[in-house]
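thread from #wetlab-drylab

HS: before we spend reagent money on co-crystallization trials with dinuclear copper ion, can we at least see a predicted complex? here's what I'd submit
DV: go for it
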Amino acid sequence: GLLLVMVGLLFGLTGCGRADMSVLDPAGPVAKMELSVIMTSVYIMTGVFIVAMAILVYVLIRFRRRKGQDLPPKQVEGNNWMELTWTIIPLILMGILAVPTVSTAFALDQKQTGPNTMNVTVKASQFWWQFEYPDLGIVTAQALHIPVGTKVNLKLETTDVMHSFWVPRLAGKIDLVPGRVNTMWFEASQPGEYQGKCAEYCGPSHGVMDFVVIADTPQQFQAWVQKMKNPQVQPTSAQAAEGEKLFAQNCATCHAIAGTNFKGVLGPDLTGFADRPKVAGVLDNNSTDVEKWISDPVAIKPGTKMPKLPLNQQQVSALSAFLEGLK
Ligand code: CUA
């Protein structure tokens, strides 16, 4: 029964309900190393459980009260041989577990150098993620693009409370702690989209502090970098031009868009907004959901610092048209 509960918890807590969020399906070397530590510990725990249960069952049967037996049975105090055994065996098992755990922890912290490496700074805020590419001069939010087969060195910081970076199929969890910079690296072996989540309770919208890692082919990644450096920012319609004006008045204090005069840093950078798979990390990126988000952000992410603006439906649609033109 207990074993079933343990296995159930293992699957439940590793997010097995979602195929794209299973630590049991690693898509890169770091996730593989982490899974190997998890499995080592599961094998040891299973072995201990089976042996302990076998001894328990043996003792229950072997030393049961038999007919005609008087109580109490012979009292035994102290047995050096047994006490040594049940001290040394757990010590050995903990040693077996400690070696891969500690060596993996240090290996994940090690900055990767040489060809096929890159640097990304992750900044977490309630309740969104910023990704900076210091060597490329690019800033983005909510969707982290990386080239496949490249070791990505992460520096992780928070602008407010503790958060935790977790992409179950690739890497993590690693905490983002106020006042310090944590480091780790990870790599995606196959192209694809990998769901990420905040894994440290950080406020009312912790549960929807989602992001995604997009592993591109090297060509796709270069194309994305070029687009982010020379984004399309000109409004493509009269409605979008109206939206740009409203953006300047209402949004530019907090949001930046590369290639424009909008340089706010309090909220997510919106360069290339239309190409992101999600809005605010959790909504679909289409005009209906963008309008839903702008109309009432707090309804979708309680505790968000993005205010509900006094805009009418026509103005919200104009803003959405402007944002959906940012490619
Ligand atoms: Cu950020 Cu939980």
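DV: The pocket of dinuclear copper ion is lined by residues 124, 127, 163, 198, 200-202, 206, 209 (CB under 6 Å).
HS: ok that's useful, forwarding to the group
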